[in-house]
Amino acid sequence: MPKDFALTFHDDDHLHQEREHQQAQDADRLVQLAKLEPLSDGGLRTSKLLLEALSKAPHHHEAKVLLDRLYQLFVPRWHFPMLADRVRNRAYAAAIAAKVRPGDVVLDIGCGAGLTAMLAARAGAEHVYTCEQHPLIAQAAARVIEENGLADRITVIPKLSRNLIVGVDLPEPADVVISEIVDTMLLGEGALATLKHAMETLAKPDARAIPERGRLMARLVESDKLLNLWRPQEAEGFDLSAFHHFATVARITPNDFAACGLRSLGPAKDLFGFDFTSPEILAGRTTEQLDCSDAGTMHAVFVYFELDLAPGIQVTNGLQSDGHWGRTAFLLNQPRSAEPGGTLTITAHHDTSELSVSVHAAVDCTDDAHQRAILMEQVWVLGTRCDDTFLPSSTSHYAKPGNAPAKVVEFQI
Ligand SMILES: C[S@@+](CC[C@H](N)C(=O)[O-])C[C@H]1O[C@@H](n2cnc3c(N)ncnc32)[C@H](O)[C@@H]1O
What we know:
Elements: H1 3-36, H2 44-56, H3 61-74, H4 79-83, H5 86-99, E1 105-109, H6 115-122, E2 127-131, H7 135-147, E3 154-157, E4 174-179, H8 191-201, E5 203-210, E6 213-222, H9 224-230, E7 234-235, E8 238-239, E9 249-252, H10 254-260, E10 263-264, E11 269-275, E12 284-291, E13 296-310, E14 313-316, E15 327-338, E16 343-350, E17 355-364, E18 372-381, E19 384-385, E20 397-398
Parallel strand pairs: 1-2, 1-4, 2-3, 4-5, 18-20
Antiparallel strand pairs: 6-10, 6-11, 6-13, 7-8, 9-15, 12-16, 13-14, 13-15, 16-17, 17-18, 18-19
Helix pairs in contact: 1-2, 2-3, 5-6
The chain binds S-adenosylmethionine.
Keywords: Methyltransferase, Ribonucleoprotein, Ribosomal protein, Transferase
InterPro entries: Arg_MeTrfase, SAM-dependent_MTases_sf
Organism: Palleronia marisminoris
């Protein structure tokens, strides 16, 4: 190699190393700044600093770890399987095409990646206002919408719907309100309160809503595998049953749901119905008898929702459904034998965002043979069960801890 060329090569190498060193120092400084940044803006400034650090030093370990942590904090992981759920997406596309008319002003509550807003624009809405509580998500959605050529038809508002003001955030009340803010138990994301506010203050009096209605349903199911997954009886020869009271409500991932093969033992019963065109946020309570039509073993009460998006268009996380939503099963303390004609009585309560379910056991009151008392043998309050809690029922005499029934005669099966 000629001497001059070798020198130049060496100098370039040195310069390159120096530049890399400088950039690594700049990246370190940006990461330190990111760590000092408060998260009150939903992580916008922090992510900007971390991305800048990574543009200078693409392999910066701490910047990568912090950015991932930030995204996990503000962008729930269920967004990805949700967006890949073709059944859900198709149902929303069909319902929006059926209910949004050309010229409509649409309010889309919970923009996410922007899918429902873009579907509304595609259906002919004059303008779509879509709000999103997480600024990082809203920022990304605006990019998605722009890349799909819809930025002039959709306005992304990085706010909670409750903070929107007609005349400020949207020019007039909406003709249609679209939302997909239900969790596996329908109410957990606060859909009732959010939609009551939206339909009353952000929409025209006769506005359409997607979804229109929702129901919570329950049925008895059998699944050894589910029980073994949530309440393994033993491990390496040790009895684990004293740990089981922590596992009362099985929140089942789609994969576990597929693997556990829950078998229905009887027909579903409606627990509660909700009208999302004029939602009420009253608490509700119902006592229902769940019927067995098949023989087997009762392991759990399976509770699921059905959402009517538009006439004839539904989404559900029921037993036969496929999709990204988790499933919920309230596990019985003890498996019980099921026979055709048998029943299990439950009482369900809901408030604005939570559901509790409790199982009844029929008992005799020996002081009055004609009176029946209902002992709430097992109570589930989503994640929490309060054993031996006695609750009043509107139609029955009540067994209370102070005058506990003399004898449990039989379960209603
Ligand atoms: C289940 S995702 C649905 C996203 C999109 N609409 C879709 O269907 O693909 C719900 C989104 O709504 C947001 N969200 C929930 N309640 C909200 C509210 N009251 N105001 C603004 N955003 C809300 C959540 O942060 C989440 O990004």
